[in-house]
Amino acid sequence: MNRPPRGSSFRAKAPSFILHASSFNPQPPYQNCRMKVLIVGNGGREHALAWKIGQSSRVDRVFVAPGNAGTSVDAENVAVNSSDTDGLIKFSKQNSIDLVVIGPEAPLVAGLTDALQEEKFRVFGPSKASAQLEGSKVFCKEILRSADVPTADYQVFRDAASAERYIVDRYPTDDEDCPVVVKADGLAAGKGVVVCTRRQQALHAIDRIARQLEFGNSGNKLVIEERLDGQEVSLLAITDGRTIVTLSPAQDHKPALDGDKGPNTGGMGAYCPAPMVTAEMLSTIEADVLVPTVHALKRARKPFRGVLYAGLMITNQGPKVLEYNVRFGDPECQPILMRLKTDLMDLIESTIDQRLDEIEPLEWDPRPAICVVMASDGYPGKYDTGHVIRGIAEADARDDVKVFHAGTQLNESGEAVTAGGRVLGVTALGHSISAAKLNAYTAVRDIRWTGAWCRKDISDKALT
Ligand code: AMP
Ligand code: GLY
Fold first, then answer.
1. Considering 194, 226, 258, which residue would you say is the last residue of a domain?
2. What SS3 class is residue 308?
3. What's the pTM?
4. What's the number of domains the chain is made of?
5. What would the pLDDT profile of 16-25 be if each residue is shown by its tens digit?
6. Separation CA 448–CA 340 (nearest Å)
7. Which ligand number lies closest to the CA of residue 188?
8. Cα dihedral 156, 159, 164, 165 sign
9. Which atom of ligand 2 sits closest to the CA of residue 330?
10. Mutation test of ligand 1: which of 180, 232, 323 has the most ligand atoms closer than 8 Å to its C-beta?
11. Residue of 105, 195, 233 to mutate, ligand 1, most atoms within 8 A of C-beta
């Protein structure tokens, strides 16, 4: 088996993933146009994408639909929601959009890529069929099993009663550890996964997901899998279905509170690179996880083109896949793009045109980056919105700092106000992880609104 080369950028190849690097040349269609790019979404990830894509010499205008207060400064906002397929097509036609980048999972799983492609737009994002890798946990597990990719053992259930029977038979009392994870099959905005330690929790999760249908049709099927222990890492790769270009590994912080305590969130901060992923581990993940997955999707006639994000648990037996996402992670995207020196449009266009084998090795800023998410009081539970945010300009003016907006919008006076749970992703580079952390938290202190809070320990995991 060929091993991917080590170095500042990583690319995977298996025997059928032949890669002849080094001749990517922004010839037509790459060099000619001053393109108009539309980015779909309104989070921190989409602000980071707009900021990075706007730096490309081939890009003239960047639109974000619907965007946030930050994208209204770094790009142009379009008042169309990411679920409004007809509205997005209409805008793209009327404004001669050259290329569309889809940020979030919901429109990908709903088939926005296919709908835009039918209208002859160039789109960066997987098809509806291959986005099932994120849209259905059952599909994902079946692909993993067929590709022999290391993952937690699992069972699929089509009704609550059989899932309950399985739990009760295996764990007759509630006094012992019940090391299972109960997952709704479909999308549930990150809330359809319950990691259990007691039988009662598993039974309660089954009831909420499959009887009360708290997540609607997403609970029509259930996956119950073995609970894995270890550290989680996010390994994102770009693939055109034949070649895989692995990005620098990152680590998210999903629990709300310091020390990974408290309820789960969309992600309270991230850093990149993640030193626990050694070059050797990276090669193993590429060979044993990414390559067989891309092959299995091809065999299933659902070739994958876009961002393949492996959520991995680094267990004592090695890395195992917890989940796949089919788009950039949020907030991982922010520190990853802060470090990426390569023109992101090179990656995007060569993926769309299936010329990823021609791309030069990626260039990275050697310095680590960290992103600290500032959130609204109450998040991930109920929170207010509409608080005026002060100090963003001061924070942004600092060297090696970029404030990416997430849940923000402009009020009638043109001020940025809070409009979501995760409000800002304050992202900074530094010569070491500690220096990047200091830079990010120094910038965080410039910013204030009523109820603002953040975790204080983003990136500490990297130092332990
Ligand atoms: P998923 O949407 O499948 O990634 O699950 C969301 C989160 O639940 C993951 O990021 C993990 O923190 C946790 N999780 C999922 N599956 C497992 C598992 N098998 N063992 C332990 N934790 C898990
Ligand atoms: N950072 C986790 C996610 O994007 O799903």
1. 226
2. strand
3. 0.93
4. 2
5. 443 333 344 5
6. 29
7. 1
8. negative
9. 4
10. 323
11. 195
